[in-house]
Specification:
Radius of gyration: 27 Å
Largest sheet: 9 strands, parallel
Strand order of the largest sheet: 3-4-5-6-7-8-9-10-11
Number of helices: 14
Helix content: 40-55%
């Protein structure tokens, strides 16, 4: 009957508000609505990252091998990993020394779990890498108390996490009471001169007798000559910082005037400073580079300048 008769000929199919033959639709990759829904029901739902059982296997393997856990995790797996590392009686958790969670999109909520783990795990974890995770200033604020309480973490990588000088302020407050962290990487964050000034004044200068920080990486942080001058000032004077050994200021906006501030630092005899990285700063001319290298050669232990 006319009631059962299709309104559109079966050889045609609706696609993008146009009627095209079914054969042509298949050639273009279009699918019927009912067919796509059925395929979606058959397809298993997957969360981003790895599944929970996978990270447990990776953690077990890391504990038996070298203690380095390196994986991209989803939120559920991240919570499980943090809970395991917080448990002081967990055999695998105690064996893991390094954790790298690059580009896991943990955000501020994931940062909260990790910071609590750092605050609780006070013995085993020594290296923590969290680059490219969109932590932001709010997520970084959770690390203030974590760094105060933890006395065993040695290396912390927070590169490319959308952090500004406001976030650096929270990190600085935690580092003022931390006597274990030896390497801090804030590369790729827009901390600018204000953030560099906070690190120079509050850590390199005021905490020069208590801080253990030996490596500071500020590559691509939009630091200019003003920020470079403040960092250099903390490493010179009558009572300079003698702990910092490496400073990475590559890929910034530093020119000759800012680079020249490090000549006295490189030429100072009683100093533990060994390496200055100023690569990818187009404003630093070859003549200034030569002056810095000459200053570094004045000492018995030649210091390295990368330009």
């Amino acid at each position: 009957s006319w009631f059962n008769r299709p309104l559109v000929d079966p050889s045609w199919r609706m696609s993008r508000l146009q009627l095209i033959p079914a054969a042509e639709a298949r050639a273009r990759g279009h699918r019927g609505r009912s067919r796509s829904r059925e395929a979606a029901r058959r397809r298993p739902r997957q969360e981003p990252g790895v599944r929970v059982e996978h990270w447990r296997e990776a953690a077990d393997h890391a504990a038996q091998r070298d203690g380095h856990f390196d994986m991209k995790l989803n939120p559920a797996s991240l919570k499980g990993l943090c809970a395991m590392l917080e448990d002081r009686h967990h055999e695998i958790g105690r064996a893991i020394r390094e954790v790298t969670l690059e580009d896991s999109s943990i955000g501020k909520e994931g940062a909260r779990h990790i910071a609590h783990m750092v605050e609780t795990n006070i013995r085993s974890l020594q290296t923590l890498g969290l680059p490219w995770n969109s932590i932001g200033n709010q997520g970084l604020s959770y690390f203030q108390n974590a760094l105060r309480a933890n006395g065993y973490l040695r290396e912390l990588d927070l590169g490319n996490n959308k952090v500004t000088a406001k976030g650096v302020k929270d990190i600085v407050q935690g580092l003022r009471y931390n006597k274990s962290l030896r390497a801090l990487d804030l590369s790729g964050n827009h901390i600018k001169d204000e953030g560099a000034l906070q690190l120079a004044n509050e850590i390199l200068w005021k905490c020069k007798d208590t801080s253990a920080l030996r490596v500071l990486r500020l590559r691509g942080c939009h630091v200019t000559c003003a920020g470079a001058h403040e960092l250099a000032r903390a490493l010179q004077g009558s009572t300079p910082n003698r702990t910092l050994a490496e400073l990475d200021l590559g890929n910034n906006d530093i020119e000759n005037r800012g680079a020249g501030s490090f000549k006295s630092v490189l030429g100072r005899p009683a100093s533990g400073f060994d390496l200055l990285d100023l690569r990818e700063n187009p404003g630093i001319k070859p003549n200034m580079g030569q002056q810095l290298r000459d200053a570094a050669r004045l000492q018995r232990r030649e210091r390295q300048v990368l330009l």
